[in-house]
Amino acid sequence: xVQPDFWRTLFRTKAVEAYQKESQQxxxxxALGRWSLVSLGIGAIIGGGIFTLTGGGG
Length: 58
Description:
This protein is mainly α.
């Protein structure tokens, strides 16, 4: 039989304030700007399309 601690651990929650505090303490710096992210997204879509077209020879 499954222990009650297992379910408590599985469904544990964390307060939103704790997530906000952790995000403010991050030592990482934002390096990608708006246009870099847009370019990355467009490249991912085009790249996925190329793999789909070349792999679909049935």
